[in-house]
Design goal:
With 399 residues, this protein is mainly α. The protein folds into 2 domains: 247 residues, no CATH class; 97 residues, D-Maltodextrin-Binding Protein, domain 2 (3-Layer(aba) Sandwich), CATH 3.40.190. Helix content is 67%, strand content 6%. The protein is built from 15 helices and 4 strands. It has a 4-stranded mixed sheet with strand order 2-1-3-4, with helices on both faces. Strand 1, helix 3 and strand 2 form a beta-alpha-beta unit. The longest helix is centred in the middle third of the chain and has 35 residues. The chain is elongated and about 105 Å long.
Length: 399
Amino acid sequence: MSAPMSFGTGIALVAKREFMTQVMKKSFIVSNVIILIAIVGGIIAYSLFSGGDEDKSTIGLTGSQSLAPTLVAVGESVANPVEVTEVSDEESGRTQVANGDLDVVLIPGADGAYTAVTESDPSAGLRAVIDTAVAQHAQSAALTEQGVDQAALAEATSTAVVTVQALDPPDPEAGQRIALSVAVVFLLYMQIMMFGLYVAMGVVEEKSSRVVELLLSTLKPLQLLWGKVIGIGAVGLAQLALYGIAGVGTGLATGALTLTGTAFGVLFGTLGWFVLGFAFFAVLYAAAGSMVSRQEDVNATASPLMVLIVIMFISAFSAVGDPDGTLSNVLSWIPPFSAILMPLRIAAGVASPIQVVVTILLMLAVTAALSVLAAKIYQRSILRIGKVVSWKEALIPAK
């Protein structure tokens, strides 16, 4: 006589079965290939069509090119880079400006003066670069004529610098944080909603086909419930990790993301919070699925969960612009809102380590309590074929 199956072994067997069933579906493979192509292609397209040399103003110089290094240096120093090209003569420069090939052409005059030819008035930034460069170039020429040693002068004035001490310095990764926050909210919304429904549909399928009666002859309800949650959750986690690795990897390769801890921290944090958020809702979706006998009736019992998920993500999207606001801060302590608001606050860099640890413990405690409740609902409802079991009937069994 074989030894009885342990609690963990039963969960593992069910989880393996659910995982393999999901990942071997042709529709699952095809849809993920399409999504990965869209993620990688979208990031590559963004990197190609945003930023780069197109932001540089183009300046043409006729005659001597001695002003060119000064123009480039001044442009870099004021964060308004310029590209300087040599123009053969004044007429050619005017033609290139008229055709849009140059933003401005500088024509030298007497005593170090220049005439700037443009299609219309130049921007304030470009005008400041040209004025400053011409003034510095003229000053340098005048000092040289007076016999001043330029190297000695530069060394003597090198210590006269301004050191900025900002009370609230800007976050150099602010743009990345906002983009990652939006991506986190969207991905978690889709993954929790979709794979939660997978759990409910799987329970209904087993119930309608009477397979569950055979499974419950050898497994306890809690083993079957957690095996299904873990197996389908593992599929969702693997899928989310694949999306994240593809997105972060492509972003780093194309330069859309910089190689800092932000992108990797957000990736791993999102995976961890998906596990917590999915576990919270999956046990409830399993209970909701056990209360019906047809898949088209799932919405009748799962609608309260869907409404709660929608409310969660509406609050998350509203908090993207102000992740450290009162609403975001308060709701992030409350399960299940913490499952979506905490990764958002982590991505924005406003979550304290204490808050992260405490909210994780709260999510684990509430999910554990819900799993016990869901197992009771599952046990009471899974063998009731035909009539839809209401939440009231499932929570308060008839005496």
